[in-house]
Amino acid sequence: MGIGIDLGGTTIKGGIVSTQGHIFEERYIMTESRRGYRAVLDDLVQLIKALQEIAPTEKAVGIGIPGIVSGDGSTVLSSPNLFWKNRALKKDLEARLSINVLLVNDATAACIAEAAFGSIIGRANAMMITLGTGVGGGLILSHKIITGAHGVATEVGHMIMGENFYTCNCGKNGCLETFASGTALVRYCDMRLKQGVSSSLKKSNILDGKIILHEAKTGDKLALEAVDRLAEYLGMAISNISDVIDPEIYTIGGGLSYAGDFLLEKISFATKKYLTYPDFAVPEIVLAELRNEAGIIGAANLMHYI
Amino acid sequence: MGIGIDLGGTTIKGGIVSTQGHIFEERYIMTESRRGYRAVLDDLVQLIKALQEIAPTEKAVGIGIPGIVSGDGSTVLSSPNLFWKNRALKKDLEARLSINVLLVNDATAACIAEAAFGSIIGRANAMMITLGTGVGGGLILSHKIITGAHGVATEVGHMIMGENFYTCNCGKNGCLETFASGTALVRYCDMRLKQGVSSSLKKSNILDGKIILHEAKTGDKLALEAVDRLAEYLGMAISNISDVIDPEIYTIGGGLSYAGDFLLEKISFATKKYLTYPDFAVPEIVLAELRNEAGIIGAANLMHYI
User: Fold this and answer.
1) Distance CA B88, CA B69 (A)
2) Contact A68/B at CB under 8 A
3) Radius of gyration of chain A (CA)
4) Number of other CB atoms surrounding residue A34 within 10 Å
5) What is the average pLDDT value for chain B, to the nearest integer?
6) Banded pLDDT at A192 (limits 50, 70, 90)
7) Is the four-CA dihedral A6, A11, A12, A13 of positive or negative sign?
8) Residue B86, Ramachandran bin (φ over 0: left; ψ between -120 and 50: alpha; else beta)
9) Residues of A in contact with B280 (CB under 8 A)
10) Which residues of chain B lie closer than 8 angstroms to A152, CB-CB?
């Protein structure tokens, strides 16, 4: 059993997770991070206390953070979604709670959930890549998570892949997530529509990644072009990651991954083109299995992966 | 103490290494790999037996390989320098020797030597990048080497960095080593000289990385342009590697690194431009300290890093 919290920009979700990976006693609070750090901290304390009452023997709570956790696991160094910088969340919570607090990046939490109960179960060396609004990652080597000396390992969305027509939120040009995220799909299609390309996407008032993937499946030329471009750059990024740490398997998660085999096949095809040693070093690439609950499940199992 | 072998394309070097990292009883044989696998195998057996006579209590010998060693450490999957493919070197040697045989990629061996006695001594998470004819790498996480599920981890010379005007030996276009190696310097200067650019490099009948670095130091415009280009791409690659595994320190080795602070400053400057989190996640970048003997020293210490 374990207590896990998924601290999102919109919702704080907490739950008690069984040893089989099932959540019972799930609780929600709206994050409303504009209220400031102290208000969110108060809510976290109440939520954790309520979960502790149900599971009083638990010795640790894991919290998934939408941002960078310091290498020592003590501090949220940066979370644009929460408007936090340098917040000593572990100390601040432990001062008010009778339980150890463990912090982890949210994509790494999702990776732990997949390793414990999902698509990469039992795999010693595995990389998760989450394709959502941005691109995140989680990495497991020898069954333990890799978070890096400064806490910025698996920030693979910011690997520079080549010049792009718009600049990343991080300030750099050419980041993977400007080629291979929901935002990237929308920006690319917007740009091409403005160039006068005809497409069924013109019907949509508001574009998002889901719509573009759907239209690509139905054969729209522009949507297909955008998805193929995403797969191409993601394949190149996967081959570059293999040149660094050579995991045995990649699992693709996040909202875009719900497009299923249609997307997976394109990513696998592109990856094979770029792998350095396609004769003897081809990683498996699969789809993540857990969805919205991965954050809570992974956070609740964090203690087994550090 | 340990027995280490540096199996190079030209020379097989073996030695006994003290616990302080000093080599005594160094022995050489010419590799002459054109003779075929069996002849090199015979020479390795004789060399190791001779070293065992001097150090009869050693239980393992480490061998640095100029190529890819399989993830399980049993097989040389590919070594263009030796003309080997899929050679079960561990089994073939152990059948004729009374000692455990441990295989490792040569750049990883150099990384071990730096971790045990050189520039990254005592560092838990460190990456070595070797700049020679090509670009190699070694990675230590939690004081252990990372070789990957298929043995191709730290093949960072083949990360794709952008389009280049010539194709890499591996068959891909845009590999880091076509931008940031001795070969890359020569190819770039050759290309620019053919375009009619004036340069002191015109005096040299045969160009190599060392000459180009020397001329860059003395202020030759073309040589400087080539070295700046190398540093730019290497900085981008280092920032991409930090986005994957975020080591606390990088050490730059290989023949080009003998250019010293002149090159190091350029690489550090370029890296800072591309780092994703320059405010709180800046790795140290230093020069390797061990030179030609790093291969033997690292191989002899392999057993402590696996």
Assistant:
1) 10
2) yes
3) 20
4) 9
5) 97
6) very high
7) negative
8) left
9) 68, 70, 77-78, 150
10) 242-243, 246, 276-277, 281
Q: Does B155 touch chain A (CB under 8 A)?
A: yes
For B143, the token pair is: 């004081």
**Burial class of residue B258 in the structure, from the number of CB atoms within 10 Å of its CB (0-12 exposed, 13-18 middle, 19+ buried):** middle
Structure tokens at A267: 């990513």
Whole-prediction pTM value? 0.97
Angle at B93 between CA B92 and CA B96, to 5 degrees: 100
Measured between CA atoms, the residue of chain B closest to residue A248 is B149
Nearest Cα to A49, choosing from A103, A2, A102, A3? Answer: A3
How does residue A205 score in pLDDT terms, banded at 50, 70 and 90? Answer: confident
Q: CA–CA separation, B53 vs A127, rounded Å?
A: 46
Q: What is the ipTM of this complex?
A: 0.97
Containing H/E element for B12? strand B11-17
- B105 forms beta bridges with B65
Q: In what order do the strands lie in the sheet with A60-65?
A: A23-30, A11-17, A2-7, A60-65, A100-105
Give the whole-angstrom CA distance, residue A256 versus residue B157.
31
In the beta sheet, which residues pair with residue B173? B167
Inter-chain CB proximity A243 and B156 less than 8 Å: yes
Distance (Å) of CA B250 to CA A69, A144, B120, B254: 22, 22, 8, 13
In eight-state DSSP terms, residue A87 is: E
Rounded to an integer, what distance in angstroms lies between the CA atom of residue A272 and that of residue B39?
36
Distance from CA of A110 to the nearest CA of B (A): 17
Q: Rounded to whole angstroms, how far apart are CA atoms B165 and B183?
A: 13
Listing DSSP states for A236-255 in one string gives HHHHHHHHHT--SEEEEESG
- By CA distance, what is A170's nearest residue in B? B276
Examine the pLDDT at B230 and tell me if it is beyond 90: yes
A66 three-class SS? coil
Nearest chain B residue to A245 by CA distance is B153
Q: How many CB pairs under 8 A join A and B?
A: 146
Nearest-angstrom CA–CA distance, A209 and A256: 7
Q: What does the angle CA B136 – CA B186 – CA B159 come to, to the nearest 5 degrees?
A: 35
Question: Residue B244 is nearest to which of A149, A244, A282, comparing CB atoms?
Answer: A244
**Tokens 């990088």, located at residue:** B250
Nearest CA in chain B to A155: B243
Domains, chain A, ranges and CATH?
2-113+293-305 (3.30.420.40), 121-287 (3.30.420.40)
Whether B122 contacts chain A with CB within 8 A: no
With a CB cutoff of 8 Å and minimum separation 6, the contacts of B38 are none
How far apart, in Å, are the Cα atoms of B72 and each of A41, B48, B146? 47, 22, 12
Q: CB atoms < 10 A from the CB of A218, how many?
A: 9
Closest CA to B183 of B226, B216, B235: B226
Q: Does B78 touch chain A (CB under 8 A)?
A: yes
Sorting pLDDT into bands at 50, 70 and 90, what band is A280?
Answer: very high
Q: Which two tokens stand for residue A205?
A: 């008032």
Residue-level pLDDT at B205: 86
Average pLDDT over chain A, rounded to whole?
A: 97
